[in-house]
Amino acid sequence: MNKISAVIITKNEERNIQRCLNSIIDVVDEVIVVDSFSTDGTEKICNAMGVTFIPHEWEGYSKQKNFANAQANGDYILSLDADEALSETLKASIVHARNAGLNGTYRFNRLTNYCGKWIKHCGWYPDAKTRLFPKGDGIWKGDFVHEELTFNSTTPPTFLSGDLHHYSYYTYAEHLERVERYAQLGAEKLLEQGKTGSTTKGFFSAINRFFRMYIIHLGFLDGAAGFRICKTSAYAAYLKYVKLNEIKKAKNG
Question: What pTM value is reported for the model?
């Protein structure tokens, strides 16, 4: 039977890590937590749960996750973020797949909790992720905004039923703080790609983002939370181009 190693990277995740560990502890053979020198109770919680806790200086999302994967002893890796947790249905699906004999990669839906509400639309769901894979097959790439897991194998992943629960933002203020940070990273990525920025581009990008999320992806069905998500995402699209314009102006003097 294939052994599964759960791999998680952390930095000050005391409010999330207990829930994450509780959801996987009976499903996997080992848990590897690579921590970027947390100053809260993350290490204490992990030690109490008996997981392998490895302090490691931050290298960027992709490099950090690839380092963490390299520490795993299992045949398969279950890659999670600290703010994620397996639903009961997904736990059962993973156990069933393992008992039947793991083969190839495995994919499942991710359901996001936003300020206490589960979001079923806005383009945020089903948000399928391939997170269970043979060790050595998956490689994380990209560090500007969102890292991406790529695979050597071209075989389509097997889909598992059940959701990966994602506890994204506890408050609207957290969402805004993330928007500001990611807009800067997004602008730097656009700059690297040779793109140009302007207020006009930002405006039309924001309109397009809101229309797509709120109307096409039925964000209005998520009520007030859906409207806030779509509005804030539109602002993020606008801000990215504004920051790109600011960076280019600063470089040109």
Answer: 0.93
